[in-house]
Amino acid sequence: MSDGTLHALGVLVALFQCRDLPAKSAIPLVAIEEPEANLHPGAAEVLMDAMTEATTFTQVMATTHSPDFLDYPDLDPESLLVFDASGGETLVAKADDASMSAICDKLYSAGELLRLDQLRPRTAGATK
Question: How far apart, in whole angstroms, are the C-alpha atoms of residue 83 and residue 120?
Answer without folding.
Answer: 8
